[in-house]
Amino acid sequence: MAKSKWVAFFLCFFLGGLGIHKFYEERILLGVVYLLTGGLFGIGMLVDLIVLLFKPNPYYP
Predict the structure, then answer these.
(1) Torsion sign (Cα): 37, 46, 51, 20
(2) Which residues contact 21 (CB under 8 A, 6 or more apart)?
(3) Handedness of CA 44, 49, 51, 57 (dihedral sign)
(4) Using 50, 70 and 90 to split pLDDT, how confident is the model at 1?
(5) Are 28 and 34 in contact (CB under 8 A)?
(6) How many whole angstroms separate alpha carbon 48 and alpha carbon 45?
(7) What is the 3-state secondary structure (H, E, C) of 1-61?
(8) pTM of the prediction?
(9) Do 12 and 19 touch, CB atoms closer than 8 A?
(10) Mean pLDDT throughout 15-20?
């Protein structure tokens, strides 16, 4: 199913340390990893913000 990049972006921006954007993208295992490591210690969250900006809207995870 197509996902909105803006929903994923704002979920990452506000709740990225909890991995909520990964759960939205249906990447459950990675969401759990983000949840347990605080967004891969913040670095993964920053990388995801940049990657989400360059994805087409809508995109397919």
Answers:
(1) positive
(2) 8, 9, 11, 12, 15, 48, 52
(3) positive
(4) confident
(5) no
(6) 5
(7) CCECHHHHHHHHHHHHHHCHHHHHCCCHHHHHHHHHHHHHHCHHHHHHHHHHHCCCCCECC
(8) 0.88
(9) no
(10) 93
**Does 58 sit behind a cis peptide bond, omega within 30 degrees of 0 on the bond before it?**
yes
pLDDT of residue 60 exceeding 90? no
Q: What pLDDT does 12 receive?
A: 95
- For the chain, give every domain's residue range: 5-53
Percentage of the chain exceeding pLDDT 90 = 79
Encoding tokens for residue 11? 């979920």
Give me 41's structure tokens.
């210690």
